[in-house]
Amino acid sequence: MDKNKNTWISSLLIHICVLNNSGKRVDNFLIHLSTELMNYNSLKIKYIIIKMGAGKVCITSYRLWILLVGMTLLLVCTDSRAQSDADLADAYFQKGECDKVIPLYQKVLRKDFNKIYLRRYMGCVVKLKSFDEAEKFFKRQQKSDENTGYLYTLYWGRMLEQTGQAASAAQKYQESIAQIPTKDLNAYKELAEEFREIDNTEAAINTLLKARDVGKNENLFKMELAALYAQTGKTEQMIEELLSLGVAIQSKEVIQNYFQDFLREEKDQAKFEKILYEKIQRQPNEPFYAEMLIWFLTQKKQFSKAFIQERALDRRFKYNGTKVFDLGNLALQNKDYTAAIQSFEYIVKDYPQGQLYPYSRRMMIVAREEQVKNTFPVEITSVRRLIEDYKKLLGELGQNNRTLEAMRSMANLYAFYLNEKDSATVILQNAVTIGRAESDFVDKCKLDLGDIFLLKNEPWESTLLYSQVEKSQKETPLGYEAKLRNARQFYYTGDFELSKALLDILKMATSREIANDAGALSLLIQDNTGLDTSEDAMKEYAAIDLLLYQNQTQTALDRLDRMFASHKDHPLADEILWLKARTYAKMGENQKAVDNLQLIVDKFSTDILGDDALFMMAELYQNRFKDKDKSMELYQKLLEKYPASIFAADARKRFRQLRGDTL
Questions:
Q1: pTM of the model as a whole
Q2: So which domain of life are we looking at (predicted)?
Q3: Predicted pLDDT of residue 144
Q4: CATH number of 564-659
């Protein structure tokens, strides 16, 4: 319907509202109007009106109904025809009948531009090789449609390219960029997207660069260009775009997410690091580059290199050690004790009057303590130096709420490494007196005291303290820890039924670590006790386990040797070897540890500890023997033999790291 007819119908609607459906004037008016509508519409419309109007009793209502139906049909008839053309074209396209699609899409596109229709039209042109007809269509549309003519030119070029006319196609691509309406930046973006759609990323890049020139703004389309540069392997340009965008918007998180997506290859990561160092040297007063480098180095777990950058930032911008402190904690969590010590030591030396000083002073000792504990065998002289460090800290800062955790750490060193249980007890009791207002701390000390009673072979005193903490810390991680220690104490003393009852509760604990430990101990008890199994062997095994807890290592190993000799065919045989292997590993007797693990792999590979033994062996060869090839061989063997193992994901990751893959 043309514009005049639309206006005429609108006028009729206004008249109806004014006449208000009453009196003969309305009745006569409706008779005249319905007659006009019946004369205007097709036979099909007349039929619909007559059929739907049958049975109307009120002549006015009947005529009004005819009027409304007729007007609705007139208003939408042209749009319906246009929609029908598009729908019909879509239907033919889905069936692959391109000979019918081409004229229909031409008809639709002449009336209203649609990129999807244009793409489909182009696909059919190529399929039928209707290039001459398409060229005429593109030429006509290019001239008649000023707003989107550049897109027709683009697909004209695409058609030429697919017919082997590369030079002519390139010329059309250039024309399409030049045809964009003046300073229409959205049009540039749209054209770039279309170039990307047809896999012409170079033209997409040129389009966006032209948009920058036109808009006189170097910050335009940085994210889009970065993606295009990454797609075409132009890593340095991609890095430059994202870094300059990061400086502009000062949003590290957004830029970091993109770099994680784009920097997959080792060579690209090396370029990124090199560019960052260069920018830091050229622009030392722009912290963004150093912050990005620190982020990158921590992702690579190169905490010592990250510390150098963080220290430089701290000194230049006066951060008072806060970011260095955070880095130290991150390094400690990742077991990079050297970098952690460096970080905390820097704060202690450079900010002796700062708020972070007491915390850094203690954390520096904590990092050293973790380093000592994880270097096998543990050297007693190193433990004594740690205790002296704690004594100096307490002498300097006093025994107060700020140093309570230091007192706990010192007490545990006395108890578990120097076997000076009475000294440990005195320190903990003193700490409880000082920190009595902090209930969580008091309960932690009670757990420590319970452990010391277990070291002294006084299990009932232990369970009393553990139970007190269970009661005061219901449904908390500390309460779950108390329940786990109680269950372990019952296991040590041979009360397996009570131990398993507590462990089965803990298997549902919110803490994954506690749930895993509880599940492992519960399974050990279940597999080696019960109606058909004597508990004597299990009690012997648990008693030896307690000896190891009490640091009576050699006595425990002698009893394990005797037990294995007499129980080689017992279900506990692989557990005995596993306990021996772990004990030798803690002693630094790496070869003896491997020998026992190899026995598990050779004789008990189908039992539950087969994959554990392989994984631990691979770790020993990787970290203790520094034998990369043997370690890789064992990780691969684990993946092949135990694909469903809980260690499979970690084994695969370590294997790829050792092989030099980029993760």
A1: 0.77
A2: Bacteria
A3: 84
A4: 1.25.40.10
